Structure prediction request, 674 residues.
Amino acid sequence: MKGVASFRRDFEPWNDGSARPFIQFDNLTKRYGAVTAVDRLSLDIYEREFFALLGPSGCGKTTLMRVLAGFEEASEGAVYLEGEDLAGRPPYRRPVNMMFQSYALFPHMDVAKNIAFGLKQDGMGKGEITDRVAEMLTLVKMEGFATRKPDQLSGGQRQRVALARSLAKQPRLLLLDEPLGALDRKLREETQFELVDLQERLGITFMIVTHDQEEAMTMADRIAVMDVGQIVQVAPPAEIYERPASRYVADFLGDMNFLPTTITSTKGDLATMEGEDGTVLKALNPHQATIGRNAWFAARPEKFRISRNRPVAACNVLQGEVWDIAYLGDLTIYKVRLGDGTFIKASQLNRDVMADDPITWEEQVWLHADPQTALVLPA
Amino acid sequence: MKTSRFTVWLPYLWLLIFFLAPFALVLKLSLSEPAIAIPPYNPVLTWEEGIAGWWVDLKRLSFENYRFITEDSLYWKSYLSSVWIATVSTLLTLAIGFPLAYGMARAPRAMRPVLLMLVILPFWTSFLIRVYAWIGILKKEGLLNQFLLWAGLIDQPLTILNTDVAVYIGIVYSYLPFMVLPLYANLEKQDATLLEAAADLGCTPFRAFWTVTWPLALPGVLAGCFLVFIPAVGEFVIPALLGGSDTLMIGQTLYDEFFKNRDWPVSSTVAVILLAILIIPIVIFQRLQQREAGA
Prediction:
């Protein structure tokens, strides 16, 4: 597995100017009557990438996937696979397979026949099909289930069969539409790692559609966050979490505290700003907000340190009253009410077991976040 | 508790009163001898001598009528011809009904209730009147011949009425809704993503139909076929009105035996045997339905 890990570490084709994109959405628009589901969207996906399309329902992510699979025709623009325009090519002539959200297993066929279905369409020989089906069953750890019918399987087993069926034809690209949506939490977490492992072993490009940020963060090399038919940001998980391009992205992935401010000065990649009550705030300024502009001071809950004494710092110091406490086991989340009534969420890692004198409800506390961990986001 | 037990027994009670009791009468009739009397038979099993008398009566029971039916070729020819006509009509109904039901199930959701309504609409008129109407369409100077002559497709009017063809047309027309409705119910609830999955795995739409849609539609196909076949075998009105003198169907033979020959015992025998023949497909149908429900 070491080889795979090192491959993963250096895998950044999107930063390599000479790399040719595997899939290219070029100014793609898809309209249903008056509704525009995908709006002039351009996106490059590279070979062997695990790519996630993330967004709320109705943002167009599923439409984008269906255009790629060939179930929908683009209204404008084009989709290229290795430079070849896919327009007019029906789904049964695309080297792309899809795992459906509902799994869409054929209820009248047993597991083996379901997996063999695509191979039969290709006219593969009987012996070869038997071998490949056995191989696929081993791959998804379902060896003993070849003769079961789909309705005799649990949700997790059906998910595995659907995966095996979509992988049986060894597609160049596998599309996964909310693949783990129907699984319970524990199984979902396990399957996430399995999927990543599988994708690395098989070397197939995966494109996954999900509304679950955790799923996208765990599995994907890059995440594209979508909103009303457009891509708001494409970046690796850490970047999208730590450097969200907008308030929308920051809100969609994880929790973020926002304070309305006005920029008072900028220096290097940092900007100083003033909160509505005159608090001096300092944060990274990747969007180059200029002096006098209104902007959001944005910091994630875990970036705040909570204490009873005023921290020794010139900026990003907030005072308030503990309004609510949520103990989550690994974390404790404090909801702190500032003087002007706004709430800040601050989370602390519970490194010590049952601290002697924990901060409790209605206490006056101080919050501090390092300027390097906070962001200026356009208002 | 009592009410629930009552509701369980209610359908059985219904069957007992309206099916088993009349059937027992018919069965008894079929075992008696014809006579010139009113009613025209010598009753067996009478109450006159009480239970003790039954023993004597039972010995007098005659299977003569059953023997007679196997001897006279008219009867088994009628049965065979009925089964043949019903089989052909059922297949024709399926051939027309399947595309109809398929089209309905694929129609825009808002259109479906309207289409369903159109299928049921003929039931609002009397069955007899609708079959009569076909006489006006099929006869020599009827609407169909007039149209074909006018269109220049034929120069001599076709003889359709009073042939087996007219009987096929009549049965297919009359029983089409019984084919379309179960098929529609099946096709409408089929998951459309299964076809997408098939296409995704390299299946052309034509092959996807035969590997996915058709096998999944089989329960509906069987239900529709039995719903058409079973009543079509015993059909009386359609061959009587549209069929010719050489159209042989058991319903008519039974009618003639009963009303023209006034041979109640033999006509009862014909009815009992018809039921026996029909019970076979009914039992098969029930078995399939149970398997469907159990799966």
